[in-house]
Each structure stands twice: as C-alpha cells, then as structure tokens.
Write a structure and sequence with these properties.
single chain, about 190 residues, alpha+beta, six-stranded antiparallel barrel, two-stranded antiparallel sheet, about 25% helix, elongated
C-alpha cells in the first residue's frame, strides 16, 4: 500500500514538474516592459537635499534620545551625566540634512516632492540629471497627502507627462522612478 502511494506521488511530481518549468517562461513574456518609459522620464527625475537648523537635547547624544529618568544615585545616571552633560536645558543647535526625490512637472521649474523631505527646510538644493544644482523655494505644502511643490529658477527643463489617476484601474502595473539617498536613478514596478 505504501509503495503504491509513493508511486502515485512520484507520478504526480513528474506531471507537475514540467508544467512548473514552462509557466515562468510564459508569464515573463506577458510582463510589461518599462525601459522606454524609464528612458523617456528619467531626465525629469531630480534628487533633493535639504538643510535645516534643529535643537538637539544633549550634546553628543543621538537625535531623539534623552537621558532616562533614573533614581537619585543610580550608577547609570552618573555615567550619562559624565559623558553627555546634565541634560535639561543643554540645547544645542545643529544642522540636519534630508534627502529625497522629486520630478519636474513643468519646463519652467515647478517640482513635486514629498512634504516630509522639505518640511522645515532652511535650504533646498535640487540636483538635475545633468549634475546642475539649483536652489529651490517652497511654493506649497500639504502635510496630509505628503506632497510639496517647490520651484527652481530655470527654463527649458525636461518635464514628466502627467496622466490621470481616473484612467487607472486597481491591479494595473505602475512604475516609480526616483533618485533617493543620493543615487542617480532607481525604478520600481
């Protein structure tokens, strides 16, 4: 009885295995090819870096970390005070930087990026694909949708062609082209 079940399993695997080897090749032929879209749109993708002044709680302590509230005489409390100061009013101003992506939406320099990239920025630098670096000014912000509009002083810039979200259906392929973390370009489908 066990031998018969084993033969049935082996026979089933022999039928299924060739099918599994053929299916990926068939599916790969039906996948969309995004290479022309990337070539067409990449020149309009920009890298955005910002600088802003922030107050840091304790000199030398990483941003966001504070000395924990420890009981009087606790040995770790003394260790923290020795290396990082007393805490409390030891506010220090430092430069914080942010990196992100955006895309040029009009040839006269309007660029869409994320709100969180430019929020509170004292200086915004946009790096174009041709390596030019231009200062940008914030035109509008929408925290709720995490969208920001910035403007650089330039003309004849490459711009993306904007489509309509109403033309899309749930389940369709989409492509995200970016320039995050200082990389030149990335594309994710």
């Amino acid at each position: 009885m066990i031998g018969k079940k084993f033969l049935n399993v082996r026979y089933s695997l022999l039928l299924v295995l060739p099918w599994l080897l053929v299916v990926p090749a068939v599916d790969a032929q039906s996948l969309p090819d995004f290479t022309s879209l990337v070539e067409e749109s990449s020149a309009a993708v920009v890298n955005i870096s910002t600088t802003q002044k922030v107050q840091s709680g304790i000199p030398g302590m990483p941003e966001g970390l504070e000395i924990p509230d420890l009981p009087e005489g606790h040995p770790l409390g003394e260790l923290f005070r020795h290396f990082f100061g007393q805490g409390g009013d030891d506010q220090v101003e430092r430069d914080a930087q942010s990196l992100g992506s955006g895309f040029i939406m009009s040839p006269d320099g309007y660029i869409i990026t994320n709100y969180h990239v430019v929020k509170g920025a004292d200086e915004i630098i946009v790096r174009l694909v041709d390596r030019r670096e231009l200062k940008a000014e914030i035109v509008g912000l929408d925290e709720r949708s995490d969208i920001a509009l910035v403007k650089v002083k330039a003309d004849n810039l490459p711009a993306v062609r904007i489509g309509k979200s109403s033309d899309l259906k749930v389940g369709e392929w989409v492509l995200a082209i970016g320039s995050p973390f200082g990389f030149d370009h990335s594309a994710t489908q």
